[in-house]
Amino acid sequence: MDPQPPPVRQWRVPRALPVVKALGALALIALGLVLADGDPVRPALAGSLAAALLAWALRDLVAPVRLAVDPEGLTVIRGYAGRRRLPWAAVEAIRLDRRSRRGVTAETLEIDAGESLHLFGRRDLDAPLEEVAATLTAARAAAR
User: Fold this and answer.
1) pLDDT tens digit sequence for 92-105
2) Which fold has domain 65-143?
3) Cα–Cα–Cα angle for 35, 41, 43, rounded to 5 degrees
4) For residue 23, what are the CA distances in angstroms to 70, 126, 137?
5) Domain boundaries in the chain?
6) pLDDT tens for each residue of 4-45
7) For the chain, how long is the longest CA-to-CA vector?
8) pTM for this structure?
9) Handedness of CA 29, 31, 37, 42 (dihedral sign)
10) Strand, helix or coil at 7?
11) Any residues with CB less than 8 A from the CB of 104 and at least 6 apart, and which?
């Protein structure tokens, strides 16, 4: 097995985010119980939503690193908690997409690897996306 070079830089979800999601799940359960009023559907629905939120928080704990870069290429999250290695030759473009709608601007970092497109938001990487894009572009240029 070929050892991977250590990452030069990696980005992860904010450390507080899984805690906030877990607290939100607890609040949903409490709200479902308070508003139940004898109806079993409301707590069941709140419990289902809380379970989904806890699964989302668990993903943040199991796979907190969403993106890593080293001289050989990128490692991105794939699926629930898997990883995919992208050598620099496979990376076709690194773009920062900004869209404004109703006074709110949303940014997305796009990594185009030909057959796959990897999208990251600010909460995925816990860093300004403009800085991440600049770091990735510089690392890609240095590898060529």
Assistant:
1) 999 999 999 999 98
2) PH-domain like (2.30.29)
3) 50
4) 35, 20, 37
5) 17-61, 65-143
6) 555 679 999 999 999 999 999 999 999 999 998 888 999 999
7) 66
8) 0.81
9) negative
10) coil
11) none
pLDDT digits (tens, 9 = 90+) for 75-133: 999 998 899 999 999 999 999 999 999 999 899 999 999 889 999 999 999 999 999 99
Strands of the sheet containing 82-87, edge to edge, are 9-12, 65-70, 73-78, 82-87
Helices 41-62, 17-34: inter-axial angle, 10-degree rounding? 170
Tokens of 115: 């057959």
Decide if 17 contacts 60 (C-beta within 8 A): yes
Count, residues in the chain: 144
